[in-house]
Amino acid sequence: MAACAVSVVEYGIGNIQSVVNACRRAGGEPTVARSGEELAAQRPDRIVLPGVGAVGEALAVLRVRRLDTALQDKVFGEGVPVLGICVGMQMMAASCEEFGAHCGLGWIEGTVRRLAPERSSVRLPHVGWNDIAVDPVDPMLGGLDGTHFYFQHSYAMECDDAHVIARAEYHGAFVCGVRSGHVAGVQFHPEKSSVAGTELLAGFFRSARASGEAC
To answer: Is the pTM of this model over 0.85?
Structure first.
């Protein structure tokens, strides 16, 4: 069986080489897309939207490079499944409240807000390994309940329970996995999560496209 063709979206914020390497370990054949034109010319089976830093800045650069419209065409016009990682997941929300109010991509009806630990003495960002509680029937995460993943963030998405596929705890519960059809996102970093991260990406590559086709 041919390797899963993966477009990894690169928009100039952070080094994505670890994501590219992780996709290869999971059985993908990654190609980097640095502009809307590059992404439009690719024919991926899957798209990975990674991210670090501030979501408002990430959205601004994504739009300057016209990657937002190319993503819209690929994900909703062609039905290509997409996985957002950390800030990549946050950009999928309808709105974001980090350093001001920002309009997200609107793929998940929700808002990105600062974590609110139960004790004011708890430090942010949340950095380190945490286990996750998952929706057991989710095609990507279903077999990973209780698995440890690596987190590095101060904000998380708040959305309707119907979109939540995973939660974690950091002095209070927060959403760390979302899905709307073939659009999925995780707050943690699979590329920094060793074997568990490889298993997650492999599950994403195996899961069916909106058209019903799996790698």
So the answer is: yes
Q: What is the pLDDT of residues 101-137, one digit of tens each?
A: 899 999 999 999 999 887 777 889 999 999 999 999 9
214, part of any domain: no
In a domain, 213, yes or no: no
212 assigned to some structural domain: no
Dihedral sign, CA of 76, 186, 215, 142? negative
Structural domain harbouring 95: 4-206
Q: Of 50, 63, 66, nearest to 13 (Cα)?
A: 50
> From CA 1, how far away is CA 146, in angstroms rounded?
31
What are the structure tokens assigned to 196, written together? Answer: 């568990």
Q: Which residues are tagged catalytic?
A: 86, 189, 191
Domain of 190, CATH number, reads 3.40.50.880
Between CA 34 and CA 37 the distance in angstroms is 8
Q: Does residue 100 or residue 188 have the better pLDDT? A: 188
Is pLDDT at 211 greater than 60 in this prediction? Answer: no
What distance in Å separates the CA atoms of residue 49 and residue 84, rounded to the nearest whole number?
A: 5
